[in-house]
# Entry
Amino acid sequence: MPAQDSKYLPRLLVLTSTYPRWNGDTLPPFVHELAHRLTTAFEVHVLAPHAAGSAEHESLGGVHVHRFHYLPEKFEVLAYTGGILPSLRRKPWRLVALPLFLTAQLISTIGLLRRYRFDAIHAHWILPQGLIAVLANKASGMHAKILCTGHGADVFALNGMIMRRLKLFTLKRCNKVTVVSNAMLNVLGRITSIDRKYSVIPMGVDCWGRFMPGKQSPDPSSLLFVGRLAEKKGVCFLLRALPLIKNHIGIKLSIIGSGTEEAELHQLAEQLRLNDCVEFTGPVPNAELPKYFQNSSILVFPSIITPSGDQEGFGLVIAEAMACGCAVVASGLPAVRDIIQDNKTGLLVAPESPQEIAHAVESLIENPEFLQRLSTEGRQFIVDNFDWELISKRYANLLKQMIASTA
# Structure
């Protein structure tokens, strides 16, 4: 989707802590997917952290990408190792890099604001990018309108007194705030009054170009998990469910992803003697993900709420799998209920329950007609509600209204 002549387009600066480091990267690409689609209405620039092997400046899909350094290149690992918060919990010594990261991002944002005089800033995640946007806008003397989007941990976790105050400080100074699920909007309502500047707009799915059903029906016993191998993903409960499934020896589970829990999960699979039916694929390029969905009958999404309160903000993997025709078994977390209607577009199970996961998977394997019904109705629900064309138009309209507003 080529951009129009930028001379006639308002300028948009996107702030993020996760972005594809190069073409064919394995990182979740949703920030880029949205930024790319907004190039038809805006001159889009993205500021993201640098990482070893990535370019400092480049154009990706019509998006001008700027990456800031915060340490010598080989030590720039804070943002791209499974998320900043999981990275810090796993290796607390990385906290020494956090002030440098935040300072570099702030200075880079100020510099870009002064150089390009953006009409609007879209900050992904309230902390730190939303706060950075507010501070940089003030420090630069610019008056760009600010849209902040919350994605998950920035809303559900970071609940200490200081963090809550920083979130409230940021939210009050943004012109518009979106979150990707109704569950997140409810949580924000506990720390601030929700008015018309708040709305729910999820991320989207390319239902017609990438995420589509395959030409052949996959084996009903082919299971799939896709996501970071982190505590909140609950993969250990999926592994513990497999021995409880009747005839589980015939099941094939592919686990796509990497993260802080990877070594423990490999060890658990060995302890449960699952080596013959579980394959740890590791991360795969985003372009290859549809193939894995198309070759699997059932996606299992066993996410949990961690002791810190962190949980799924939306569950984009669920929507992508459903668009490809997978039946979905997912933990019944609040955000997941925006996508899964139990027994209609998927099956909901109790979090941290191997027994319920096993029972739900059994019910699908033993009843192919039920599995096919969930597959068909699930895809249609995603097409009707989460296709990127619908979602990107909502964001474009919101940004245009925000820029035009005198408030």
In short: The chain has 14 helices and 14 strands. The first helix runs from residue 30 to 37. Confidence is low (pLDDT under 50) at residues 1-6. The CA atoms of residues 300 and 329 lie 5 Å apart.
